[in-house]
Design goal:
One of its GO terms (molecular function) is hydrolase activity, acting on glycosyl bonds. By secondary structure, the chain is α/β, with parallel strands linked by helices. The chain is built from 11 helices and 24 strands. The longest helix is centred in the N-terminal third of the chain and has 22 residues. The chain binds 2-acetamido-2-deoxy-beta-D-glucopyranose (NAG) (6 copies).
């Protein structure tokens, strides 16, 4: 009996000590395979057209703080679009318009010359590229009526502004108050392309569309019809929108739940395959995307916990072949990278470091057996202020759970690595309004520059503590793909 008891204890001890080792994660940085390539402006931002209706809300285009925060994300695309793009009417000569509600409660509104001036001067000053979404509800005899767009184009050329890209309409597949079908909008896009091409001053430009409302089946159906009607020839980039959930049903738990994170994967694969079939040489972007739709979840989408959904979306999208991710939003709603006081939320800092540290190509990393840990790997950005040189590799890791996860890096154990690890900014934990980098709360020291974002130098295996996420750079990885 004693003998059997001893064996039982030994077996129990084996499993107790080894429950850790089954969960251990190992990653060989020098053996990762290249999965995809992305461009230097893979991450962009949006400003919703509804902010034009408010004549830019609390944005102060002269605020040094606002300009500093925007410059911190350059180079970047900014897409100005959304539901309200289909109610905006450019008017060079007036400052106001009598708003008249239609039956569904929608009202048109004016974008004044001053509104357009402010936007264009701003993007050029901070080094961003403007993508502008034109109103597709201005229609005549079942076709898009470009009269107002042409007024805007002429004014734009006269002022020397240089938007880099255009869109036409927003989420027509899920917006049911007005119906414009995929069959109708396909020739509208051809018309848009023809008009834009007729102004040499606008070149080079590109066209994104159709800004389908989801990556789910309703949008796949709409985009299939759009492609079948020849729409694919007029666009350079296919755009789909994505939100994980409805803001009204959002919870803190859902924001770091692996099932929620993984819900994106099959849908992205589906839309990428659709586009491969119809427009194999063209890019697919998440043209407007965030944690939860309907303005973002109150006291969740602007908190530390939202960074899990954001960083994971950037990783998953890049490894599956998405070429651009436009974050709803830079400013506006609970999901803004900056808040209505123009102060940065946690996701702002995560995005700044993504841009500085993460580049192309993207490597395949098998998802670890421990579902709490998410890992992505890319070549390091060698064209940023961080000064990394060719050959370096950046991993990004997210620990969704409440226990520390060790990560072994067998082929890098003898070389140093640079740690940029984020954690909640205060004792409220996941709902913290602020975020720490390597243990120090991030904040602007002054309005004219971002604080230094310095790494901690480490060596050997990596510990990802509970609810931490961040970047690890291996300057000594010597990957020939990383030039
Ligand atoms: C612009 O506003 C003026 C003055 O209110 C009006 O007469 C004109 O029709 C408007 N133009 C457009 C394109 O709405
Ligand atoms: C907006 O203006 C267009 C053009 O005048 C008109 O066709 C449309 O019905 C208006 N929409 C609303 C919501 O008033
Ligand atoms: C995550 O969400 C799924 C589905 O909503 C649920 O079944 C699961 O229990 C959640 N996981 C955790 C760790 O809360
Ligand atoms: C490096 O970055 C600068 C500033 O964004 C940009 O102008 C330049 O084209 C980039 N160079 C390369 C080789 O990507
Ligand atoms: C850690 O999370 C697990 C499930 O995700 C939960 O059952 C457990 O109570 C948590 N532990 C602590 C200390 O919060
Ligand atoms: C790391 O250094 C140890 C001791 O010198 C050596 O035994 C080991 O092979 C090295 N590992 C690698 C991956 O270079």
């Amino acid at each position: 009996m004693a003998y059997i008891a001893r064996i039982t204890i030994c077996v129990l001890l084996f499993f107790a000590s080894c429950s850790q080792c089954f969960m251990r994660v190992a990653i060989n940085v020098q053996k990762l395979n290249v999965a995809q390539h992305i461009g230097p402006k893979y991450v962009g931002v949006t400003i919703d057209s509804s902010v034009i209706r408010e004549h830019w809300g609390t944005i102060d285009f002269n605020s040094p703080k606002f300009l500093t925060l925007a410059k911190g994300l350059a180079p970047s695309f900014v897409r100005v679009g959304g539901t309200d793009c289909d109610f905006v009417i450019f008017n060079e000569t007036t400052t106001a318009m009598n708003e008249r509600k239609d039956k569904a409660g929608h009202t048109n509104f004016t974008m004044t010359a001053a509104d357009w001036d402010e936007l264009n001067i701003f993007v050029s000053f901070v080094g961003w590229d403007l993508i502008f979404d034109l109103n597709v509800f201005l229609r005549k005899d079942g076709h898009w009526d470009p009269t107002n767009a042409i007024e805007l184009i002429k004014y734009t050329i006269e002022k020397g502004y240089k938007p880099v890209a255009y869109e036409l309409g927003n989420e027509l597949d899920v917006f049911h108050d007005f119906v414009v079908t995929a069959k109708e909008v396909a020739p509208d896009f051809a018309h848009l392309k023809q008009i834009l091409s007729s102004y040499p001053e606008l070149a080079p430009f590109f066209i994104l569309g159709t800004d389908a409302g989801t990556v789910a089946s309703v949008s796949v159906k709409f985009m299939t019809e759009f492609f079948e009607a020849g729409g694919g020839e007029s666009i350079d980039v296919a755009t789909f929108h994505h939100y994980y959930m409805d803001s009204r049903k959002a919870t803190v738990d859902k924001f770091h739940n692996v099932t929620v994170l993984e819900s994106l994967r099959p849908m992205l694969i589906n839309v990428i395959n659709l586009c491969k079939r119809f427009i194999p040489t063209k890019q697919v972007w998440l043209g407007e995307t965030s944690s939860s739709y309907g303005g973002g979840a109150y006291e969740i989408s602007d908190r530390y916990v939202s960074s899990f959904l954001w960083l994971d979306k950037l990783g998953l999208s890049s490894v599956l072949g998405i070429q651009g991710v436009l974050r709803q939003s830079f400013y506006g709603g609970n999901y803004g990278l900056i808040n209505s006081n123009l102060d940065p939320n946690p996701d702002y800092w995560l995005t700044v470091l993504f841009k500085r540290l993460v580049a192309s190509p993207v490597f395949t990393v098998p998802q670890p057996p421990n579902p709490d840990l998410r890992i992505y790997a890319h070549c390091t950005n060698t064209n940023s202020s961080m000064g990394y040189t060719a050959g370096s590799v950046t991993l990004y890791l997210l620990n969704l759970g409440n226990t520390t996860v060790p990560v072994d890096v067998p082929d890098m154990v003898n070389k140093t690595h640079h740690i940029y690890m984020f954690s909640p900014g205060d004792d409220t934990g996941l709902t913290s309004k602020s975020i720490k980098l390597n243990g120090v709360v991030l904040a602007l020291a002054n309005d004219n520059e971002l604080p230094p974002l310095k790494p901690v130098i480490g060596q050997g295996n990596i510990q990802v503590e509970a609810y931490n996420m961040g970047y690890i750079v291996f300057p000594g990885a010597m990957r020939s793909e990383c030039v």
